[in-house]
From TrEMBL:
Keyword Signal: yes
Domain Outer membrane protein beta-barrel: 7-194
Xref: InterPro entries: Beta-barrel_OMP, OMP/PagP_B-barrel
SUPFAM superfamilies: OMPA-like
Keyword list, A-Z: Signal
Pfam families: OMP_b-brl (PF13505)
UniProt-recorded name of the protein: Outer membrane beta-barrel protein
Record's signal peptide: 1-20
Transmembrane segments: none
Organism of origin: Sphingobacterium tabacisoli
Length: 212
C-alpha cells in the first residue's frame, strides 16, 4: 500500500508539472532562431560537382506579450565545379544580408501552436559569377541592394523553451539591387502572393526557435 501511494504521488506530481507548463511568449523574452539548408550533387560521369548552403540566424526581443522586434542575418554560397579537357573550372556565387524585423502574434491554435505575421527590411550584398579556370581567376560581378517583405509564420512548441519555426511565405515583397559599377541602373522586383494558404509548403522555411 505504501508503494502504491508513493507511485500515485509521483504520477500526480508529474501530471501537475506537465499541466503547469506554459507555452508561449511574454514581455521581456528573448528569442534566437534560424534555418539552415544545404545541397550537394556529384556526377561521376562528367566529374561535375555542385554544392550550396544558406544560413539565416535571427534574434528578437518581446516588447509586449505579442510583439517582438529584432535583427536577422543571411549568408550563403553556391559552387559548381566542372572539367573540360582536364581543365578544372570553379564558378562561385556568394551572398550576405542583414536586416531588421517586427513580428506580431495574432492567433493561438491550442496551447502549443502560435501563428504570427512579420514585416522586415534588409540590405543585401551579392557576388555572382566568380570563376577560376585552371590558374586564371575572373572576378565576380558585385551587387548591392535592399528589400522589404511581409509574411506569415508559426511556432509549434516542443518544450517550454524550444519551438519549431515555420516561416510559410511572403505575402508581399519588394527587392531592388544595383551593380557595383559606375552608371549602373537598379533592378527592381515586386511580388504579391495572395494564394499563400494554398501553396505555402512550396516556399516554407523550417527552423528552430529558442526562448530565453
Amino acid at each position: 500500500m505504501k508503494k502504491f501511494l508513493l507511485t500515485l504521488t509521483a504520477v500526480a506530481g508529474l501530471t501537475a508539472a506537465s499541466q503547469a507548463q506554459e507555452f508561449g511568449f511574454e514581455k521581456g523574452n528573448f528569442i534566437v532562431e534560424g534555418n539552415f539548408n544545404s545541397s550537394n550533387t556529384n556526377d561521376k560521369g562528367t566529374k561535375a560537382k555542385t554544392s550550396g548552403f544558406n544560413f539565416n540566424p535571427k534574434a528578437g526581443y518581446f516588447v509586449t506579450d505579442k510583439i517582438a522586434v529584432g535583427v536577422d542575418f543571411g549568408f550563403g554560397q553556391d559552387k559548381k565545379t566542372t572539367y573540360a579537357a582536364d581543365i578544372k573550372t570553379v564558378a562561385t556565387d556568394k551572398n550576405f544580408g542583414v536586416g531588421a524585423f517586427g513580428r506580431y502574434y495574432f492567433l493561438e491554435v491550442g496551447s502549443r501552436f502560435k501563428t504570427y505575421t512579420e514585416v522586415g527590411v534588409g540590405y543585401m550584398n551579392e557576388k555572382i559569377g566568380e570563376k577560376k579556370v585552371g590558374d586564371v581567376k575572373t572576378d565576380a560581378a558585385k551587387f548591392n541592394g535592399f528589400g522589404a517583405n511581409a509574411g506569415i509564420g508559426a511556432n509549434f512548441f516542443l518544450t517550454e523553451k524550444i519551438a519549431v519555426n515555420f516561416a510559410f511565405a511572403d505575402v508581399v515583397s519588394f527587392n531592388s539591387r544595383k551593380a557595383d559599377v559606375d552608371g549602373a541602373k537598379a533592378e527592381t522586383e515586386f511580388n504579391t502572393n495572395v494564394n499563400v494558404f494554398n501553396n505555402f509548403f512550396n516556399t516554407a522555411k523550417f527552423g528552430l526557435t529558442f526562448k530565453f
